[in-house]
Amino acid sequence: MPIKDCKIIELPKISEPRGNLTFIEGNRHIPFDIRRVYYLYDVPGGAERGGHAHKALNQLIVAMSGSFDVILDEGGEKKRFHLNRSYQGLYVCPMIWRELDNFSSGSVCMVLASNIYEESDYYRDYNEYLAVIKK
Ligand code: TYD
User: Fold this and answer.
1) Ligand 1, pocket-test mutation among 34, 37, 38, 112, most atoms within 8 A of CB
2) Domain 3-133 adopts which CATH fold?
């Protein structure tokens, strides 16, 4: 799937004087079923996460609190997304290299994923990844 399919998805937001509520239903608001949720937190200033691509995994990345950047590429130009709203998610399709940086203090990065954790789904070596996508 090409990088142009990776985009910010606006999620439903119910705003009331007593607070906001956002919800996400698999295959309705995002184009996959949710089989796993994980989150990054207590990320030290200056740290970088990611640095890999997935063979088949679909993901939605949401800044639940604070902010951070997600940098996507598929061997060409890098696209940087600044996430700082809990009612927006970045959809990342399979075979896209991603890096995350610029975490604000106290930020929480939640990831919804289409499958359980499988190390065999990862490309962790950028050159190996490039060789596969340029075939
Ligand atoms: P990794 O995917 O490299 O983290 P990030 O992309 O945020 O930098 O995962 C870090 C470690 O956590 C690695 O040893 C694999 C493990 N892990 C799991 O066991 N289950 C999971 O669902 C995830 C996402 C990671």
Assistant:
1) 38
2) Jelly Rolls (2.60.120)
